[in-house]
Amino acid sequence: MSSLHREWKLRVQPVPKNNWGDNLAHLLPDEIWDHLRKEVYKESGYLCEICRKDNVAFHCHENWVYNDRRKTQNLESLMCLCPMCHDCIHWYRSEGQVIRGKGKIQGYPNSYLNTLRAHFCRVNHCNYSVFDYYLKRMLRVRAVRTRNDYELIYGVYLPERIEQAYYQRLKK
Description:
Elements: H1 3-7, H2 24-27, H3 30-43, E1 59-67, E2 72-81, H4 83-89, H5 91-99, H6 102-105, H7 112-124, H8 128-146, E3 151-153, H9 159-171
Parallel strand pairs: 2-3
Antiparallel strand pairs: 1-2
């Protein structure tokens, strides 16, 4: 990755196929996940941590760091994101939903990918040709990650630890 890409605030994160759907939102009881994500929104000042947008229905994003050599996926942090930044990070999921028609069901027309592309370029101060080149590189990363099984490492976000802390707070 070039030094320019390292400075970008917004990046595509290709998730290994074997870990699709493995996330805290699915592993934690709804009550605990809702509490956790609302804490993340509050800590961010109710602003998207990437583009600083406010007054939107925020998403709580699990920020994973990948070690492609060791085949590990480490949960580094939780972030408050606007829907467009979140959809850019999960570009290939967003693209698949639009292509398969799920985007239309969710209210996103086929032009939504162009909207995401423009958002990505605006946030990172780059042009479309740089984005297109970057996306091709990320497609290769996605192909490598999809061919391998990655170990999930939750660290301080271990679901059992979060549940225990939540119930201990309720007792106080």
